Amino acid sequence: MPPFKLHSPNSLEEAIEISREISESGLEFDWIAGGTDLIPNYKWHINVKSHVISLASVSELKELSTTHIGAMVRINELASDKHTHPVLAKAAESIASVMIRRSGTVGGNICLDTRCYWINQSESWRESIDWCHKCDCGTGADCRVIPNQNTLCVATYQADLAPVLMCLNSQIHIASPSGKRSMPISDFFKLDGMTRNVLKPGELITHITLPSDSKEWQGDYQKLRQRESWDFPEAGVAVLWKSNTEKEPIQLRVATTGLESIPMLHEDESKSAMENWEGDSSVDELAESIKKAVKPVKNTWFSPSYRRKMVKVLTKRACRGLLVS
Amino acid sequence: MVGYKQQPGKLPFSKPGSGGKNSFSKPIEENMIPSSQGGKLQQPWGSHRHDSLVSGQVIGKDTALVDGNWKVTGQAHYGDDVRIKGELIGRIVRSPHHYARVISIDCSRALKLPGVVAVATGVDAKNKFGVLPVTKDEHAMAVDKVRHAGDLVACVAAEDEATAREAERLIEVEYEILDSIHDMRDGLKDSVEPIHDRGKYHIGESNVQKRVFQEFGDVSGMLSSSVASYKEDWVFAGVNHAFTEPHAVVAHWDPTGRLTLYTPQQVPHYVHRALADVLEIPMHQINVHRTFVGGGFGGKSDPFPHEMCAAILARKSGRPVRITFDREEVYWVNRGRHPSRIEMNLHADGEGRICGIETDALIDGGAFASFGHVTTYYNGVLHTAPYEIGSFHYTGARVWTNKPASGAMRGHGAVNSRCAVEVGLDHLAEQLSVDPISLRLANLLPPHSSTITGFRVTSIGMRECLERVRQESGWTKKFRKLPLGKGIGVGCGFFISGSGLPIHWDPNKFPHATVHLKIDMDGGVTVHTGAAEIGQGSDTVVAQSVAEVLGLPLDMIRIKSRESDTSPVDLGSYSSRVTFMNANAAISAAMDIRNNLIDATAEITNSNKQGLIVGDRRIFQKSDPSVGVSYLEALHKAQEDRGALISSGAYRTPPMGKTHKGAAAGLAPAYSFSAYAAEVTVDVETGQINVEKVWAAHDCGKALNPLAVKGQIIGSCHMGMGQVLSEEMRYSRNGSLLNPDLLDYKIPSVHEMPEVTPIIVESNDPEGPFGAKEAGEGPLLPILPAVCNAVYDAIGVRPSELPLTPEKVFNLIEKRCKSEGILEPLHLSPPSLNYSDLQTTLENRASEHSSRDYSRRLDEERSEYYNGALFGLDPSIPPDQTDPSWAVRVTPDPSYLDDPRLAGSAWKHTERRKRGEVE
């Protein structure tokens, strides 16, 4: 483990103050929440910073209610809380293993670093392939997945909560020394495996809010992986909808994860499916369109072609509640 | 309490007969005493030469492992738990290149770093070593070349880990990169720069390390009578043992100038020899101290370069040096199962006999030989039983590639080809429209027979294994009758119980295993054995054997198996030899002491020693139990003139086998047999397999400790399931190992684990200790084909590539859909079965053979039975003596080379010495 200085503020204000001091002295730092993502990466010397600010004692970030989820709420807490939206709880329950869920947090899961065979390796391993674009150690190394382009990192975003939160149209709230801001969670992610999201240096997620009608949304989250425990999603599909009294969907949202560098909300595909909803055949069409919309690359356990095909199966399964037959 | 009076002051011992927790002896448990001795223990397989030694103490009872308390209380010291004052931390500098020549190494900057005490490179240890004397091809650190990414280049010892890691970066190595090879098929070709140079034994200019050709029987003649055939090109990914404890070693040169090496080793004796070679010091100056071993499975049975490094650094620095691997480094030393390409051909004739097996196995050895010489043979010869076969053709080759070395792993060399054979049999049964269990039952070798390759097989519980799983799994109600996506499959296994040939010496000159006993006044028995306890329970089984023969409770036995200074030389824990060989040696050592005790008792009680028997801490007349003495009293009498009793027992295998080249590979004093049925659910839309239930029958001869046998069966299921479902060392297109960690190297978790029903079959091996055979490796074999065959039953696709990830299964399903013009996998139909007439023929033959086998297992006057009798040959004469076409051929005809199979093409090369280029 490379050496770093750990700061343990007791309030959000103090945390932000420490971050300001570090930034002003020209140094870099990482926030640490549950540490289940950051610590392994640090052990592998991936983009290590000299300062780490722990949010473990910041009580403001731990609030959990039907519409408010603090960034420091443990995933296990979210999964087992009876007020949690059932689809969100299902996604939370499917993350890693129970020990990791007890440590990992909602904010940490949303900010999960992207993953790739060529980056999640020890330092000497990465040196043996002359590094890669994401952590090039000053060499300007090319991407190892899609060579001959060194502008984009295609590492895969493999977290489970984001697609469900996207389908629930939740807002994400951010704080930093320069103030607070919020946005729909679908605007939070930004396509690149390195930056991943809109957080600027010094910013942190404080909480997520769900719209008041979220309870009226139902649906499912489906996940593809080799083993039922531990494994990151090779593909994840959340489908949520609001139905009328005839049990037909009047609003529908689909989001995917584990397929690209950020989770994707598929608004166009949902919209065209909803334009002329015809039950089972619409589910098929929707599933096919989602399959076509995703562009996985070869950097995780399953091949891109298999993952795409499975997106169709997962979408259909997530839509089971919509099937007439 | 007969025959003993306390004499205060003279004998400072507690109550007579004591020594254990209970101060009074217990009555003999009649149901533990074999019926041959007048007890109530049924012996359906007949009596055994050790029956008279059974005292009813521990043999056959569920017994907690004797070292278990150390582990569960956290007091067991594994490799990295050894702390010696003044230790330094060693780190290894590894190659970033797959294949390169080391031009220069500059350690000067590292040596200047404060806290760095010593640095070593290849020049510090030029001598080669390797686990097999015939293929020593490893150095402590690179001499001239590095052969795979992660190969050792240099090492450094520093005051702490951070400094050692920093120093690692400061060692500058200049390389000249060479063209590396990663596809095992390329290893067959000539190369500009072969990975090793075997001198005059080098095969062509290729990277072929070992090649094997074996042919028994009239292959082409037999094939002409075949009516059903199976041909498949299998691809098996390499798998790693993935034991819990990464390698760790501590080297300490003590003030007397001797080296003690603390290491979690399965085979301490080979390390002992290799250290002597590499360090150039005599063996007596080295003490190899085996720590607790956190799992081995074959992965800790080579002498390792890092062990040499620790010793070299410790010698240079004058301080103890500890090296502990992280998980990635475990994958760099690897020694896991060989990635393999196996072409399997099976043929059945009109009577449902297996008239031919033709196997071609190309195995990827990685950068070093390790056990590979043996593995190359095992891939062929270990599937010549349990079935009687009409002819056998095997071509095998092991090639070097620029990958971490493959080696021995649980089920050594037998697992992959066994999987292919058993899946092939399922296919033959399908073609013949018969039940696959019936097909197997009608083709089994009888007990006490000889295989086509000349292996002497003694006890065989194969038939019982198959019958038990058929019954307990509800096979007949399920097979080919379950709905789409649900399936049941069967697979069998056959494995050696100890290797017939000690690698390092002539078996006639030195025994395979030796056990020493020492009993002093206190009555406790100190057992010295070199058998390496690696978690499998070897300490326990040796303790049990001694306790049983001497009639003592287990807590009176203390095992000293750690140090080469005090342990007799032993080959170590591999090839499933420990129970068979060490327990036999322990029994013979204990018999010696037992005789002393009986003599003493006869003298004290003034009775006939022929009538004396040993019970729980008491020796008495069988006819009149009141005449006898306590164990301690007999012991003290026996000690009168000589003090502590000391005895030595040894085991060596009987002479056996044929004499052709390679005949010794696969020879064992006994063989284990197993049959599993697995029930699976396949998600037909995703290809995800869930193994729901496994019925696992294993013939271990006699379960000395049923609890441990069940543990081995369940553990084997888990390990084999890993290989069949998800475990794989995955390499990128440029040869980098992508998953040297336990997140991406996917071992099944508890969620994937099925409900396993272990079924123990006890065939009472005549030469095994109390009838026992191995139970550590054989149980792994059947799970792979059982799962593959169950997948076929569920969805009608026949796998030929492992691991069967959902992706591979899905691709097979998609292919089947396409060929049948079906759009939705859910509309596929599962395979069905309508028996052909052959089914009755097979059932009748199985029933005849069943009675034949029953009499052969009991009949002391049993006749010879050579493989081939099923095909009309005289069972009492080796077939090659009646029919010259059955004579073994160990080199191919020139005509074979016109169109060789993949591995067979290795024979196109000529050895250098035969090309006249060297003398």
Considering the chains and any ligands shown, give keywords for the structure:
heterodimer, A: 325 residues, alpha+beta, Enolase-like, domain 1, four-stranded antiparallel sheet, 11 helices, 29% helix, B: 919 residues, Aldehyde Oxidoreductase, domain 3, Aldehyde Oxidoreductase, domain 4, 3 domains, seven-stranded mixed sheet, six-stranded mixed sheet, 20 helices, 29 strands, 25% helix
Structure description:
In chain A, the strands form 3 sheets. In chain A, strands 4-7-5-6 form a 4-stranded antiparallel sheet. Chain A has a 4-stranded antiparallel sheet with strand order 8-9-10-11, sandwiched between helices. Chain A is built from 11 helices and 11 strands. Chain A is globular and about 60 Å long. Chain A has a domain at 221-322: Enolase-like, domain 1, CATH 3.30.390.50. Chain A starts with a strand and ends in a 7-residue tail after the last helix. Chain A has helices at 12-24, 38-43, 75-80, 86-93, 98-103, 106-110, 123-128, 161-167, 267-275, 280-293, 304-318; strands at 5-7, 29-32, 51-54, 68-70, 171-176, 179-184, 204-209, 218-224, 235-243, 249-257, 264-265. By secondary structure, chain A is of the alpha+beta class. Chain B is of the alpha+beta class. Chain B has 3 domains: 79-178 and 246-294 and 300-333, Aldehyde oxidase/xanthine dehydrogenase, a/b hammerhead (Aldehyde Oxidoreductase, domain 3), CATH 3.90.1170; 340-501 and 659-846, Aldehyde Oxidoreductase, domain 4 (2-Layer Sandwich), CATH 3.30.365; 508-651, 2-Layer Sandwich (Aldehyde Oxidoreductase, domain 4), CATH 3.30.365.10. In chain B, helix 5 packs across helix 6 and helix 9 packs parallel to helix 17 (783-795). The termini of chain B are far apart. Chain A binds chain B through residues 3, 97, 117, 120-122, 124-125, 127-129, 224, 226-231, 301-303, 306, 309-310, 313, and chain B through 94-97, 149, 162, 326, 328, 685-686, 726, 732, 734, 736, 738-741, 743-744, 746, 748-752, 805-807, 810-811.
